[in-house]
């Protein structure tokens, strides 16, 4: 049944080469933990991606309740946490996932570094990877403000102050992030937009590049 | 190296990648063409990998369910005594700004120069470390710089966290999200950010109210029923005990904290009928419909 549906579509659209390009590739022995247990370090990238998917999905559910204005932001998070069925789990997944994704990304970066996998011909992928790293930190920084409790507020205030102390550029960064005289309604809507649209967009584009390059070049060879 | 073919071979790859050096046709190679125990990603490898993913997911869900994510009190920009703390992975940069040569007049060193060198070098690592050697122990400079940065990052993070804990201790502050979680658990506060509103006294005009004011109860449960210091409140007690139960409590006491009170009150001039009226009135003390005291609130009394 499935096969005939596939064949029917394939006949019209010739999709076999496409999915072969995307998914049909080999897993060499030296990165397969089934053959060498120490190869588990090669799983960190995949696990980072797994948590990234969790972040995106749980985040989509969070936006069903979250309201990005200063009167209701806190209330909506509190409502989600205490009243909505499974709200505490959805918020928990996003909260803990945000830390875990940083841990995993860090471990992945260390794996790539210590196996020298960033060397030719994979320089570009390392640079893309570092850009992903910065986008992730940006997601962490902007997401921290959204619950709009005192911890969120004052951490963001200090963060923006630090950025503002940078010579020349500082004042522009401050205006861009803060949007007004103090950390307030404007800041919250900006951080929300950055956290939910701009940065995930950048992240997905960069991830696309990352995976394209891995697929094209294959994983680096054994040491 | 795995995919290194020498130039006499028909197919020449770029480095050890699978990008062919000369344009050939694009038919994927059979897996037997690759060295060692290579296997197909789909389905062979993925079928094993999803099990790793499931184990990971179970651990993650246990963490999530056993540790609800924190939420303090609504942001109040006029607050001045809040100790700010960023998320843990920013702590090392935060701590960096607290040293003499990275703060005040030299703050540029802490905000721009040092992080710039660190992240700049990381970003450009492939162009700085251009040797062919990949094993970390044969790349002493790159590896030791990385170990050094790792050590510095971990050290700064720990110092920052300890400093934060120390500051909290010194100022005798409990972080708000912990404070609030405790209060909610103790029933002192309702989720929603507001203090739990005390339940009002029902039927103040009743004779029962007057008797209560004369009875020994006030010395512990207070004239407003809310309890003297740590004594339990009797507000809304009717949601918990019936008239018969309260009569029993008056005569025989309750738990370890309250002995039978009937004799003392009879001695003080109240009659058994008064105590009956009192028990009846207390049983009327119910929270307004739909606003029953939270479960934990009644349990902790
Ligand atoms: C959301 C974040 C990221 C995801 C989901 C991700 C995912 C992956 C995956 C699945 C691989 C295949 C090999 C493996 O799993 O170890 C990989 C390889 C690679 N990653 Fe990442 N990565 C991320 C961030 C980074 C960062 C921060 C860097 C470094 C700055 C980086 C640099 C690389 C490089 C150079 C490779 C090729 C390594 C090789 O061929 O051996 N990635 N990435």
TrEMBL record, chain A:
The keyword Membrane applies. Pfam families: Cytochrome_B. The chain crosses the membrane at residues 39-67, 96-114, 126-146, 191-214. Signal peptide: none annotated. Residues 5-223 form the Cytochrome b/b6 N-terminal region profile domain. Keywords: Membrane, Transmembrane, Transmembrane helix. The keyword Nucleotide-binding does not apply. Gene3D superfamilies: Cytochrome Bc1 Complex, Chain C. This is Cytochrome b6.
From TrEMBL, chain B:
Keywords: Electron transport, Heme, Iron, Membrane, Metal-binding, Transmembrane, Transmembrane helix, Transport. Residues 203-286 form the Cytochrome c domain. InterPro entries: Cyt_b/b6_C, Cyt_b/b6_C_sf, Cyt_c-like_dom, Cyt_c-like_dom_sf, Cytb/b6-like_sf. It comes from the Bacteria. The chain crosses the membrane at residues 50-67, 105-128, 140-161. PROSITE patterns: CYTB_CTER, CYTC. Residues 31-162 form the Cytochrome b/b6 C-terminal region profile domain. The keyword Metal-binding applies. It is a multi-pass membrane protein. This is C-type cytochrome. It is found in: Membrane. It holds the Pfam family Cytochrom_B_C.
């Amino acid at each position: 049944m499935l096969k005939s549906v596939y064949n029917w579509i394939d006949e019209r659209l010739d999709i076999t080469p496409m999915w072969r390009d995307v998914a049909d590739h080999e897993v060499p022995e030296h990165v397969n933990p089934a053959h060498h247990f120490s190869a588990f370090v090669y799983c960190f990238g995949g696990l980072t991606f797994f948590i990234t998917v969790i972040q995106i999905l749980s985040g989509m559910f969070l936006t069903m309740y979250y309201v990005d204005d200063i009167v209701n932001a806190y209330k909506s998070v509190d409502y989600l946490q205490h009243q909505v069925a499974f709200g505490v789990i959805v918020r928990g997944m996003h909260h803990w996932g945000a830390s875990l994704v940083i841990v995993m990304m860090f471990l992945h970066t260390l794996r790539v570094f210590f196996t020298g996998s960033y060397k030719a011909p994979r320089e570009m992928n390392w640079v893309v990877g570092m850009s992903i790293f910065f986008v992730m930190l940006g997601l962490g920084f902007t997401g921290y403000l959204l619950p709009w409790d005192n911890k969120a507020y004052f951490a963001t205030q200090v963060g923006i102050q630090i950025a503002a102390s940078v010579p020349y550029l500082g004042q522009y960064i401050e205006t861009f992030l803060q949007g007004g005289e103090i950390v307030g309604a404007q800041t919250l809507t900006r951080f929300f937009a950055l956290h939910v649209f701009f940065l995930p967009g950048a992240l997905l584009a960069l991830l696309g590049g990352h995976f394209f390059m891995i697929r094209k070049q294959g994983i680096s060879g054994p040491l | 190296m795995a995919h290194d073919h020498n130039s006499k071979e028909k197919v020449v790859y770029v480095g050890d990648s699978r990008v062919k050096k000369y344009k050939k046709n694009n038919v994927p190679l059979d897996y037997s063409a690759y060295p060692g125990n290579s296997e197909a990603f789909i389905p062979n490898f993925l079928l094993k990998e999803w099990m790793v993913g499931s184990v990971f997911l179970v651990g993650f869900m246990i963490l999530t369910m056993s540790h609800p994510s924190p939420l303090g009190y609504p942001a109040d920009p006029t607050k001045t005594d809040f100790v700010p703390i960023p998320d843990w992975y920013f702590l090392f940069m935060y701590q960096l700004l607290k040293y003499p040569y990275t703060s005040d007049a030299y703050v540029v060193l802490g905000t721009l120069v040092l992080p710039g060198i660190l992240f700049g070098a990381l970003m450009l690592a492939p162009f700085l470390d251009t040797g062919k050697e990949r094993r970390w122990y044969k790349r002493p400079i790159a590896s030791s710089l990385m170990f050094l940065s790792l050590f510095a990052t971990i050290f700064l993070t720990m110092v920052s966290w300890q400093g934060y804990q120390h500051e909290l201790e010194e100022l005798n502050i409990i972080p708000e999200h912990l404070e609030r979680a405790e209060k909610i658990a103790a029933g002192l506060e309702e989720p929603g950010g507001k203090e739990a509103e005390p339940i009002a006294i029902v039927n103040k005009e009743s004779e029962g109210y007057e008797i209560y004011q004369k009875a020994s109860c006030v010395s512990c449960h207070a004239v407003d029923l809310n309890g003297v210091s740590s004594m339990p409140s009797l507000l809304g007690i009717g949601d918990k005990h019936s008239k018969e139960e309260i009569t029993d409590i008056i005569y025989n006491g309750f738990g370890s904290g309250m002995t039978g009170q009937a004799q003392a009150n009879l001695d003080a001039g109240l009659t058994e009928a008064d105590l009956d009226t009192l028990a009846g009135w207390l049983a009327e003390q119910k929270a307004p419909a739909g606003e029953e005291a939270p479960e934990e609130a009644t349990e902790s009394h």
